[in-house]
TrEMBL record:
Species classification: Bacteria, Pseudomonadati, Pseudomonadota, Alphaproteobacteria, Rhodobacterales
Keywords: ATP-binding, Cell membrane, Kinase, Membrane, Nucleotide-binding, Phosphoprotein, Transferase, Two-component regulatory system
Gene giving rise to this polypeptide: sasA_6
GO biological process annotation, one example: cellular response to phosphate starvation
Major subcellular location class: membrane
EC number: 2.7.13.3
Molecular function via GO: ATP binding; phosphoprotein phosphatase activity; phosphorelay sensor kinase activity
Subcellular location: Cell membrane
Protein name: histidine kinase
GO cellular component: plasma membrane
Species this chain originates from: Pseudooceanicola algae
Protein origin, superkingdom: Bacteria
Reactions mediated catalytically: ATP + protein L-histidine = ADP + protein N-phospho-L-histidine
Name of the top EC class for this enzyme: transferase
Keyword Phosphoprotein among record annotations: yes
């Protein structure tokens, strides 16, 4: 690690002393490198579908102008690429919004069991297509947290969607429990776990999974419509709620993501 120290000398008046300011800019430099990486990643992620769109527009204007079958096929690909850009922009906006809200702890009382049921219903078509059964277990009728309902819905959607997309055909289990004393939490908390029984993730990837645009298998993520931002958004929302997140995975057995949130 290199540290650069800038030093500003403030004029002294004889007999009244000298003020010297030292500023450690290594953190600023790191933030600047991260910002540049982020912009490069976003540009790359947007450019890929954009290039495809422009290419197909050219083909439709030229060689494929009178080929009806090709036109339908190309329009379908173009709609997919457009959808990919739309998802990316939506996720980028969500990420920037949660980052902006980071200091303000949400204040609403949110009932989690009902929220999970509603997310499960919304994901029924995706689960059906992937031949996945989503089970929900909860030891109470109502479980309250202090939070932001839209952001908590997004956390649940991202986790369950990933379990369905990457877990393969079979079952996904959602378990909700609490309120109870939880490790690493000051007051009582609630626990939410989403488990799949898919191929699992090699442990070398686990520490980086919540980084923006980090994917274990880029090709598969793109094929599944992933933006690479889902878990980064989850991490930021959980942090804003003063909660904790733990990812556990075993190759060949599956993946389990546990979120702990302060109870309301
Ligand atoms: P994406 O939009 O690509 O799904 P995420 O941030 O949600 O991005 O997830 C990051 C990566 O973590 C994914 O690309 C995938 O490789 C891996 N991943 C996430 N959830 C699971 C899971 N349940 N099983 C296996 N791999 C997963």
């Amino acid at each position: 690690t290199s540290y650069e120290v800038t030093c500003s000398y403030v004029d002294s008046v004889v007999g009244q002393g000298v003020v010297v300011c030292f500023q450690d800019i290594s953190l600023l430099e790191k933030a600047e490198i991260m910002r540049r990486d982020f912009v490069a990643n976003v540009s790359h992620e947007l450019r890929t579908p954009l290039t495809a769109l422009l290419g197909f527009i050219e083909t439709l204007r030229g060689p494929a102008r009178n080929d009806e079958a090709a036109r339908d096929r190309f329009l379908e690909i173009m709609a997919n690429e457009g959808g990919r850009m739309e998802r990316l922009v939506k996720d980028l906006l969500s990420l920037s919004q949660v980052e902006g809200d980071a200091r303000m702890r949400p204040t609403e009382r949110v009932e989690m069991f009902g929220l999970i049921q509603s997310v499960r219903n919304a994901l029924t078509p995706l689960a059906r297509d992937a031949r996945v059964q989503v089970n929900l277990r909860c030891d109470q009728d109502e479980v309250f947290v202090q939070g932001d309902p839209d952001q908590l819905r997004q956390v649940l959607t991202n986790l369950v969607e990933n379990a369905i997309k990457y877990g393969g055909a079979g079952e996904v289990d959602i378990t909700l429990s609490g309120p109870a004393e939880m490790e690493n939490l000051r007051g009582p908390g609630i626990s939410l776990t989403v488990t799949d029984h898919g191929p699992g993730i090699d442990e070398l990837h686990l520490p980086r999974l919540t980084e923006r645009f980090y994917r274990v298998d880029s090709h598969r993520s793109r094929e599944m419509g992933g933006t690479g931002l889902g878990l980064a958004i989850v991490k930021h929302i959980v942090n804003r709620h003063r909660g904790r997140m733990r990812i556990a995975s075993t190759l060949g057995e599956g993946t389990s993501i546990r979120i702990i949130l302060p109870a309301a």
